[in-house]
Amino acid sequence: MPDENGHIPGWVPVEKNNKQYCWHSSVVNYEFEIALVLKHHPDDSGLLEITAVPLSDLLEQTLELIGTNINGNPYGLGSKKHPLHLLIPHGAFQIRNLPSLKHSDLLSWFEGCREGKIEGIVWHCNDGCLIKVHRHHLGLCWPIPDTYMNSKPVIINMNLNKRDYAFDTKCLFNHFSKIDHQKFSRLKDIILDE
After folding, report:
1. C-alpha–C-alpha distance, residues 116 and 101, integer Å
2. Which of 68, 117, 122, 166 is the most exposed place for a label (fewest CB within 10 A)?
3. Residue 56, SS3?
4. Run of H or E residues at 47
5. What's the CA gap between 23 and 42, in Å, rounded?
6. What is the band of 130 on the pLDDT scale with cuts at 50, 70, 90?
7. How confident is the model at residue 125 (pLDDT cuts 50, 70, 90)?
8. What is the pLDDT of residues 77-89, one digit of tens each?
C-alpha cells in the first residue's frame, strides 16, 4: 500500500509495454529472456562486471535500476543522446568494513571510508528484519561527486556465445555486444556510440 506521500515501499512489478517503465525495459530483452546486470566479477572482487543474465537467474529477487535517467544519475552513466541503464540485484554488494549502528560511527563511515561513498546500507537481520540507512537520514548529501561504484574498474562480459542473438541495432544489448570483453577504469568511462 502507498504511504502518505504516495511512495510504494518494497517493489513494483514492471509492465513490459508501459512507457512509465521504458528505462526498465531498456535493460531487459523479453524475447531472449535476459537482463543487463551490474555485479562483482565472480573471480575478482575488485572488478565490476556488466553481463547479460538469464531472467530465470533473477527470480525471487528485487533489483535496483541505475542509469542516465534515474534519480539524477549519481554514477554518471551514459548521456542524453546515448542513455545507459543497468540493474543491480539487491544484496549484490556486500560491505566488508561495516560500521556499528551508532550514529557517530555511521556518520564517520559514510564521510570517511571509501566504502561509505554510497547511497545507503540495508542490514539483513537474523530475524528477517531489514534496516535501511540512507545518507539523507544522517543529514548527508546524495548524490556525491565520487561514488564507491565509480572507484572500481568494470569489464563487459555479455556471455552471449551460446546462441545467435539478433538484437535491434539501437538497443543496449547490441551496444554492449560491440564492446564485449572491454575493460574500463570506472563506470563513467563507458561511452556508447551508434
Report:
1. 14
2. 166
3. helix
4. strand 44-54
5. 26
6. confident
7. confident
8. 999 999 999 999 8
> Residue 156, SS3?
strand
Domain for residue 149, yes or no?
yes
| Residue among 194, 190, 193 at smallest CA distance from 76 | 190
Numbers of helices and strands, H then E, in the chain: 3, 9
Q: Cell numbers of 74, please? A: 549519481
66 in any annotated domain: yes
Residue carrying the nine cell digits 542513455: 83
The region of weakest confidence among 62-71, 91-100, 174-183 is 91-100
Q: What is the dihedral of CA 53, 54, 60, 61, to 10 degrees?
A: 20
Instruction: Find the radius of gyration of the CA atoms of the chain.
Output: 17
Q: What percent of the chain lies above the pLDDT cut of 70?
A: 92
Three-state DSSP state, 107: helix
Collapsing DSSP to helix, strand or coil, 54 comes out as strand
Number of domains within the chain: 1
Span 132-159, average pLDDT? 91
Look up the domain containing 165 and give its range: 22-95+144-184
* 136, containing H or E segment: none
Quick one: pLDDT at residue 26?
92
